[in-house]
Amino acid sequence: MNELKLKFKEKSDALKQEMRALLKENGTRKVDEVSLSQIFGGMRGIKAMIWETSALDPFEGIRFRGYSIPQLREMLPRVDGGKEPLPEGLFWLMLVDEIPTTEQVRWLSQEWERRRNIPDHTFKVLDSLSPDTHPMTQFIIAINSMQSNSIFSLRYAEGMGKQDYWDAMYEDTMNLVASLPLVAAYIYRRSFHNNEQIAPAENMDWAANYGHMLGVSDHPDFSDLMRLYMTIHADHEGGNASAHTVHLVGSTLSDPYLSLAAGMGSLAGPLHGLANQEVIKWIYEMVDSLGTTKLTDEQISDYIHATIESGKVIPGYGHAVLRQPDPRFTAQKSFAEENIKDASDYVNIVWQLFRLVPPILQDLGKVKNPWPNVDAHSGAILVYYGLKEYGYYTVLFGVSRALGVLSQLCWSRALGFPLERPKSVTYKWVKEFLDKGE
Ligand code: HAX
């Protein structure tokens, strides 16, 4: 057994024992109360699941196994000459709770290269779709079609016992993560570049190879952008819609392919991951309507007000949990400050928006978080490096998100978490509950 798998087995066995003992002793203790506004209001803030790989603080933002994004940018291994962390390192950290060495991360890059394997029928299924099918729809269909590779599903059909779920989960997770960049790049090239495909490079790290297969930029900074992008979008604790969907579907013992594809359906919603396409689309529309990319503060403010007055949200702003600028936004801003500086009007507009949107949202008096989220910045940077087809942006997010949700899925099966099944009530039940004066 390889080092990563062995570490995962040892650590998850130990935690499973520890959790069982803790629950035996403390299982009846209350940690939370649920109000009617939470039941009606999208279950905000209800503590209702265990998620090991990351935790989200409203003011500080995300921490992956206790490490903030600035810490990870310093501490995770990089390639020689690279300026940004390798997402392989983040995956290792999320799976076994240890910052890996450069050698361990190199091994993981090679292991994913070795495991990359997409069934022929996946390409045939994709080729049967019209190239203008939304890239997220293609991505979901592709992942579902790859399910024929699932080891979990095969072994379950052969009678696998509970004690072996972790093993099959680990194998599927590694194979699926290994294969996603190739299938995702295939979708991009068929949708936007006449199906002229670019073969994967050999001996290249996972994120840079994805960038290579997209074929939009040879600039070394683009490889670094891909590494940073794939790292910061990977996980955002368990309650967000895509992570929660994967968790829920996985709890039925659906395999990682079906679980991830379901989660990608959540990510494809405009209030969640699709916001990254909506942001740049909205900026393009603003620029088109004003006929220039050099916008005054007044023009932008008027456009923000007009958007809100027409009953729409300002994409890239607000969050269900965060109450400060998203550190994933800040990390992208610092990347752009270092590498793009003043060279992009679109990046400048994003920075203008960062000054102008929050006070306007604050004045509405109802928006709980007026600050930018992860999706406010990514599009302008991608446009600068030549990836202009914004309909594709959520696929990039999805490839990264797989790292977090699938490593947690390994933990969920290793720890023996049960089928997720919360309780719903009817409105009649609520009124009767209130009538009883409880
Ligand atoms: N622009 C205008 N109005 C906004 C707003 C925004 N960016 N954000 C919130 N509001 C409004 C809500 O629509 C709501 O209005 P109503 O009461 O009239 O329905 C009110 O303010 C209260 O909402 P909230 O409690 O502050 O926010 P929620 O927790 O309900 O929703 C959202 C959080 C992220 C969905 C919300 O802020 C939003 O729609 N933002 C824009 C879309 C977006 O950027 N989504 C990406 C979020 C991050 C993510 O998941 N990335 O993948």
In percent terms, what proportion of residues is strand? Answer: under 5%
**What sort of overall outline do the alpha carbons produce when their principal axes are compared?**
globular
Q: How many independent structural domains?
A: 2
DSSP strand tally: 3
User: Radius of gyration, Cα only, in angstroms?
Assistant: 22 Å
Task: Report the sheet with the most strands, covering strand number, pairing sense and barrel closure.
Answer: 3 strands, antiparallel
Named CATH topology of the largest domain: Citrate Synthase, domain 1
CATH architecture of the largest domain: Orthogonal Bundle
Lateral arrangement of strands in the main beta sheet: 1-2-3
Helix content: 55-70%
Give unreliable regions as ranges. Answer: none
Bound molecules: N-hydroxyamidocarboxymethyldethia coenzyme *A
Q: Give the N-to-C terminal Cα separation.
A: 56 Å
Give the H and E element order.
HHEEEHHHHHHHHHHHHHHHHHH
Structural class: mainly alpha
Full CATH superfamily name of the largest domain: Citrate Synthase, domain 1
Count of DSSP H/I helices: 20
Overall pLDDT, averaged? 98
